[in-house]
Specification:
Layout lengths: L3 E3 L6 E6 L5 H5 L7 E7 H17 L3 E7 L8 H13 L7 E6 L1 H13 L5 E6 L2 H7 L4 E6 L2 E8 L4 E5 L8 H15 L2 H7 L8 H7 L1 H5 L3 H21 L14 H10 L6 H18 L5 H14 L10 H10 L3 E2 L2 E2 L1 E6 L2 E5 L4 H12 L4
Parallel strand pairs: 2-9, 3-4, 3-5, 5-6, 6-9
Antiparallel strand pairs: 1-2, 7-8, 10-11, 12-13
Helix pairs in contact: 3-4, 4-5, 5-6, 6-12, 7-10, 11-12, 11-14, 12-13, 12-15
The structure holds glycine.
Length: about 375
């Protein structure tokens, strides 16, 4: 049985959470007509998990092919997608075949985009292997690549047939990759009450408080704790996606921390992880909300305290305010010339706002640098 189901009518799909590839057959029941499986993975994950996944699939009598793409955000581009198309063409991949995206968010986004566009769409299954991918990018159907220096500017909404999470793959993440991924989990915790207001049947789990109370277990990668957090996190995200699959409205709350976070990420040329940038972006959004007087400094400090205990940096002296502001102007989240912000109101509640004074944005970024005003 699925641990979470994303309910989207005929595009509904299960999310399975396991501690091995043992139950992968469940994910494959969603693509019963598929005869060949193409694993798309990157040069890092290939060495660690591609063989064990492939031998498991072969054991189930599937024909398995594999393409290894170069690792890293700098390769998240149309050239890499072209390489996948070329591989598919040379190997006569058909519409009934399935792409399996094995890796972090970059692999999932690229492989998902190739699946969305090759032969006008072939099946794909997400097998995320980083916290960011498990808790955010593998769920919800956003696929795409960077272009002309802008992140994720080309893409498609294309839902996977299933998401299969093998918690064992998280053990080999570097400490930085592991802990910083929790920024996305904190983000989902900080929107939980707003999500509950949207969906009556959704029961509040109190994810933020749970995270505060279980930081040691998180850092020790305690399996039951991780499994509970991931399930709750995916449930929160899936409820938002069910409500607004194509981000015509409320799904934008999933961008909490991303307006400034993405800009920091690009301006530092990806020196910081995505999670670290989202954490900084959320803190800046909290600062804006405090200045606008609808969030308290005490609540902001509570969020900073959680991030700090988890080991996620809450400032960075190399942030260049001018560059960040320039990057923000290039971002997809500019609409009608205005920047779109998601700001906290309470722990668990956010609101959308696109009338934030530039000076206030600047001051909030400056606070992240730690420079005097
Ligand atoms: N990562 C934000 C979203 O899926 O909408």
């Amino acid at each position: 049985m699925a641990d979470v189901t994303v309910n989207l009518g005929e595009r509904s799909y299960p999310i399975y959470i396991s501690d091995s590839f043992r139950d992968f057959g469940n994910a494959l029941t969603t693509i019963s007509f598929s005869s060949r499986l193409l694993i798309v993975t990157d040069s890092n994950v290939d060495k660690l998990y591609a063989d064990s996944l492939a031998s498991f699939l072969e054991h189930l009598e599937y024909e398995v092919l594999k393409i290894v793409i170069p690792a890293g955000e700098k390769n998240k581009n149309l050239e890499t997608v072209s390489r996948i198309y070329e591989f598919c063409r040379q190997n006569q991949i058909e519409r009934k075949d399935t792409i399996i995206a094995l890796g972090g968010g970059v692999v999932g986004d690229i492989a998902g985009f190739a699946a969305a566009t090759y032969l006008r769409g072939i099946n794909f299954i997400q097998v995320p292997t980083t916290i960011i991918a498990v808790c955010d990018s593998s769920v919800g159907g956003k696929t795409g690549v960077d272009f002309g220096g802008s992140k994720n500017i080309i893409g498609a909404f294309y839902q996977p047939k299933a998401v299969y999470i093998n918690l064992d793959t998280l053990k080999t993440l570097s400490q930085v990759q592991y802990v910083s991924g929790f920024a996305e989990v904190v983000k989902h915790a900080l929107i939980e009450k707003t999500v509950a207001d949207l969906q009556e049947e959704f029961e509040l789990a109190g994810l933020f408080e749970y995270l505060e109370e279980n930081t040691e277990k998180i850092l020790e990668k305690e399996i039951d704790c991780l499994s509970y957090i991931i399930k709750t996190n995916c449930l929160i995200k899936s409820k938002v996606v069910e409500f607004d699959e194509k981000e015509k409205g409320i799904r934008a709350i999933l961008n909490f921390g991303h307006t400034i976070g993405h800009a920091i990420e690009s301006s530092l040329e990806f020196r910081l992880t995505h999670g670290e940038c989202v954490a900084l972006g959320m803190i800046a959004a909290c600062s804006i909300a405090v200045k606008l007087d609808f969030f308290t400094e005490q609540r902001k400090q509570r969020i900073i305290a959680l991030l700090t205990v988890l080991g996620i940096p809450t400032n960075d002296s190399e942030i260049d305010i001018e560059k960040v502001q320039q990057e923000m102007k290039n971002d997809k989240k500019v609409s009608g010339g205005k920047l779109h912000f998601v700001l906290p109101k309470k722990i668990g509640e956010v609101i959308e706002c696109n009338h934030v004074d530039e000076g206030m944005i600047r001051e909030s970024i400056r606070e992240l640098v730690g420079a005097s005003l």
